[in-house]
Design a protein that fits this description.
mainly alpha
Length: about 180
Amino acid sequence: MPILSYNAGWMLWNIWLAVLPVCFIRLSLLTKNKLFRFVMLVLWFVYLPNTIYIVTDLLHLLQQWHQLTGWEEIILFVQYIILEICGFATFFLAVRPFEKILREFHLQKWETASIIVLNFLVGFAMVLGRVDRVNSWEILINPYHFFSSSMHVAMSLPLVGLAILFGLFANVVYFLLKDLSLSS
């Protein structure tokens, strides 16, 4: 049972971090103030990787699974299902409005390419978070750690490959969810 209560704490924190970019992009769309909008979009971009990054937390499930038995395994599994649904939902809800912003700036012909590039940047950020343990806010409060970690990832062929895989995954998830949302 301690594992389940421990999970609840960090999972709620990660869900909170995943909800932030959804709020930031929504606020950017609601305002006419250009400075406020710019700040919200910067914060959206900085916190966006926290959404789909949640998928990397499945590693904890693999580590914890053997420590529980019976009904605790079911609760553990449900915890992770809820966490993953939140990650995918916040990712989609945070990226989809970006298409509207691109259209506002008459960049619709670059819409798909922009989303693809954005998702590869998210993939790079996922590697920063998982491997070098870089948090989103460090780009603002500890830029040295962010940039040195970015260089570490960029100079490592295996980590670049992992970033590309994460970027491909983010693109597949986004465009699948987009197709599902358009067909309903």
